[in-house]
Amino acid sequence: MYYQGAVEGAANTESGSRVFVYEVVGLRQSEETDQTNYQIRNSGSVFIRVPYNRMNQEMRRITRLGGRIVSIQPIGVLQQINGKASFEVASEAMSKTTSAESAHEGNGNATLVQAELLEQQQPKKKDTKGNTMTQAKAKKDAHADVPVNIYRPNAPFIGKCISNDALVKEGGIGIVQHIKLDLDGGNLRYVEGQSIGIIPPGVDKNGKPEKLRLYSIASTRHGDDVDDKTVSLCVRQLEYKHPETGETVYGVCSTYLCNLKPGDEVKITGPVGKEMLLPPDEDANIIMMATGTGIAPMRAYLWRMFNEKERAVNPEYQFKGFAWLIFGIPTTPNILYKEELEELQAKYPDNFRLTYAISREQKNPQGGRMYIQDRVAEHADELWNLIKNEKTHTYICGLRGMEDGIDAALAAAAAKEGVTWSEYQKELKKAGRWHVETY
Fold first, then answer.
1. 30 found inside a domain
2. Beta strands 239-241; 248-250: pairing state
3. Which of 8, 101, 310, 437 is catalytic?
4. Is the domain of 311 the same as that of 257?
5. Which of 130, 195, 382, 409 could form a disulfide with 376 if both were Cys (CB 3.0 to 4.6 A apart)?
6. Do both 319 and 407 map to the same domain?
């Protein structure tokens, strides 16, 4: 799955200067952000590095772009490693990075952590109509050892294509490929739920080198061959009609990846991302809702949980909980990884439930097309009862906008018990149990 990345804001800093990390929510692609030299992520938080003397300017800029600062953290102490200066960042700063933003002008003093921000950072003990909620836990503590940005855009890892296999069967819509890349000889490590960057060759319309695009990883940390030497992607070739000329336009990076041949070299960056990580609890309940290539991280989770070879090399993690995948696709030939999914369902009927929403073949109760939100509405009471369990984590990945229908269905189920879904969902997010990556 491909989606736009987060921004590493602020400019270069000098040795010894104080630097802070802003966690920002609410940024969306707009006419103004289109003019910047970085990509805006479509969901979740972005993390922006800000020097002390530019904090006021950055606060104003974030507000202007529609964002809201939910926390401010010091970036850490400047350390000397092998004679070179290096920052140890406590939070997921510089995650999903393209290029650094140009320095802001001005040297005004800044207000540091406002009382409102401090209050927002504190876990809230909130009882929603008698339903137990776990307190929010800081993600940086739970995921401190997760690898991030081992390879950066200015020094990418050069991997090679091992295989490039079609996932859409005959009669399906579009082109989707499962691409396996060789990481042998490098130091690129990752975990399930992360993404890597791909830098396509060539230059853009302005004559500048192409920027990286981010793709969700579709394999476990050990790779499809379970040898720690590969990473796999699920890539759909972007194709659309130009609104003015009517000309067919193909995505630059997706077309490049879909046309890779074994042996072709690929520039890889990352890994990035901590929003979509699996909990370490072997008894967890994992609800997965995906559309199209949003299946990529879900495949990684399912392999981690159920694949026999994967389980053999992970004695410390033997999943015993319950996983439920609700997968939205347009036609049966478009069911990506169909054989894998249905094999797991047959082998683990008590632990894995598979539900399709095939929009062009199935009908919802109103006689319209069956979309993922219709399936969620159909099973809303069951899902709501699962979600109330503090061991349950929910993952949503796919087309932006799918969340609205899912929220509406779950709100109706929660309302039967006098619970306001929007408030309950906030607590789920704070507890690190509600994970969304849409594009």
1. yes
2. antiparallel
3. 437
4. no
5. 409
6. yes
Whether 424 is a known active-site residue: answer no
Q: What is the mean pLDDT of the chain?
A: 80
Q: Which of 3, 151, 190, 439 is catalytic?
A: 439
190 is catalytic: no
Per DSSP, the three-state class of 293 is: helix
pLDDT of residue 75: 62
Amino acid at 144: A
Q: Are residues 255 and 327 in the same domain?
A: no
CA atoms within 13 A on the CB side of 31: 0
Of 216, 219, 254, 359, catalytic: 216
Last residue of a domain, one of 218, 246, 272: 272
Residues 342 and 431 in one domain: yes
Residues 212 and 237 in one domain: yes
pTM over 0.85: no
Domain housing 111: 2-122
The mean pLDDT of 136-145, rounded to a whole number, is 54
Q: How many domains does one find in the chain?
A: 3
My answer on whether 219 and 298 are in the same domain is no
In angstroms, the CA 159 to CA 265 distance is: 6
Catalytic residue among 254, 397, 424, 427: 397
CATH number at residue 341: 3.40.50.80
The residue from 215, 256, 301, 424 that is catalytic is: 215
Which distant-in-sequence residues (6+ apart) come within 8 Å of 175 by Cβ? 166, 168, 236, 237, 239, 258
Query: pLDDT confidence of 244, banded at 50, 70, 90?
Result: confident
Note if 216 is an active site residue. yes
Torsion sign across C-alpha atoms 212, 148, 431, 299 = positive
Mark whether 97 and 56 lie in a shared domain: yes
234 is known as an active-site residue = no
- CA dist list (Å): 13 to 72, 100, 130, 429: 17, 11, 49, 32
Q: Which of 77, 101, 122 corresponds to the end of one domain?
A: 122
* Helix H or strand E encompassing 97: none
Strands (E), 7-134: 19-25, 46-51, 68-74, 78-81, 84-87
Q: Are residue 212 and residue 76 in the same domain, yes or no?
A: no
Q: Give the strand order in the sheet containing 176-182.
A: 2-3, 213-216, 195-199, 265-272, 157-166, 176-182, 230-236
